């Protein structure tokens, strides 16, 4: 049975390069943004094991978002953009 979509805004399919910047800015991980909305994204990594609950995501166009992980699998995470909640 398919889970209902609980997102407040629909996500659009995407295939964009990105980079997760961990707190402190000393560690980064390359990633791919698989879908995107003004409020969040699905992001794929080689492994999500080293990705903390909050980090900064930089998209290939230079846009950055402070993110909170909402769900996690071994290779993908769903994030909510914390900066979108503040506006």
Write a structural description.
There is one protein chain. This protein has one domain: predicted glycosyltransferase like domains (Thrombin, subunit H, Beta Barrel), CATH 2.40.10.220. It contains one helix and six strands, in the order E-E-E-E-E-E-H. It has one helix at 82-86; strands at residues 12-21, 28-36, 40-44, 54-59, 64-72, 76-81. It has a six-stranded antiparallel β-barrel with strand order 1-2-3-6-5-4. Strand 5 and strand 6 form a beta hairpin. 18% of the residues are buried. The model has no long low-confidence stretch (mean pLDDT 88). InterPro entries: PilZ_domain. It comes from Agrobacterium albertimagni AOL15.
Task: Summarize the helices and strands and which ones pair or pack.
Layout: E1 12-21, E2 28-36, E3 40-44, E4 54-59, E5 64-72, E6 76-81, H1 82-86
Antiparallel strand pairs: 1-2, 1-4, 2-3, 3-6, 4-5, 5-6
Task: Write a short abstract of this structure.
The protein is mainly beta and 87 residues long.
């Amino acid at each position: 049975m398919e889970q209902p979509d609980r997102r407040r805004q629909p996500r659009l399919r995407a295939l964009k390069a990105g980079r997760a910047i961990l707190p402190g800015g000393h560690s980064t991980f390359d990633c791919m943004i698989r879908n995107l909305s003004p409020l969040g994204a699905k992001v794929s990594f080689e492994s999500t094991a080293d990705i903390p609950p909050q980090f900064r995501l930089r998209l290939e166009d230079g846009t950055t978002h402070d993110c909170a992980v909402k769900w996690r699998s071994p290779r993908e995470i769903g994030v909510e953009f914390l900066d979108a909640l503040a506006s």
